[in-house]
Write a structure and sequence with these properties.
The protein is an alpha+beta fold. The chain has helices at about 15-20, 25-30, 40-50, 100-115, 130-135, and strands at about 5-10, 55-60, 65-75, 85-90, 120-125, 140-145, 150-155. It has one domain (about 5-155): Gcn5-related N-acetyltransferase (GNAT) (Aminopeptidase). It has five helices and seven strands. Bound molecules: coenzyme A.
Length: about 160
């Protein structure tokens, strides 16, 4: 199998991204768990694509989309240094095949080519064992966080 390749998302990815976002397994570990309607999603997608503070990527294997990685600039700076928050979704039919680590790495490479993040943060639902395993294997470590979501952080500089 060819390695995953990340590219910038476009408006033509809208339906695919919404399908992945509205998948029940994705929603149950998200901060917003409701179904997102298409019109709201399209508005969100246009804003994201136009924003210099966000990087939305679609990852493909052999030209087939297998998931998405997104980075949002974290403007509060409370962690010291420039930080970005990562979010990742593997397409439901491609989950559990060990693709997520290479997908994350492909996304991080594009982020670090374009920005100078000091940290990347990941908010991981405490019930989301696969996601925690993914980020830990990729060098993210837990920082103290209260509530339903763990916070994992990778230091880059
Ligand atoms: C979380 C997610 C990105 C992981 O991707 P995946 O393709 O399912 O997982 P992978 O096959 O790449 O495996 C990643 C790690 O999770 C482990 N894992 C996979 N499925 C698991 C499961 N159901 N329960 C526990 N661990 C699991 C794997 O063993 C692997 O750990 P290892 O490297 O220590 O062996 C994917 O399941 C997903 O998109 N889920 C819905 C959205 C989501 O949770 N996003 C993350 C929000 S922070």
């Amino acid at each position: 199998m060819a390695p995953p390749v990340a590219r910038e998302a476009t408006e033509s990815d809208a339906e695919l991204l919404l399908e992945w976002r509205n998948d029940p397994q994705t929603r149950v570990v998200s901060r917003t768990t409701g179904l997102i309607p298409l019109d709201r999603h399209l508005g969100w997608l246009r804003d994201v694509l136009a924003s210099p503070s966000r990087l939305l990527l679609v990852v493909e294997v052999d030209n087939e989309p297998v998931g998405t990685v997104r980075f949002d600039h974290n403007s509060d700076h409370k962690n010291g240094g420039d930080s970005w928050e990562v979010s990742i979704t593997v397409a439901p039919k491609h989950r559990g095949r060990g693709l997520s680590g290479a997908m994350l790495a492909a996304g991080e490479r594009i982020l670090t080519q374009r920005q100078r993040p000091a940290y990347i943060l990941a908010g991981v639902h405490r019930d989301n064992a696969a996601s925690a395993a993914l980020f830990q294997r990729a060098g993210y470590v837990d920082v103290p966080a209260a509530g339903e979501f763990r916070q994992l952080r990778k230091t880059l500089s």
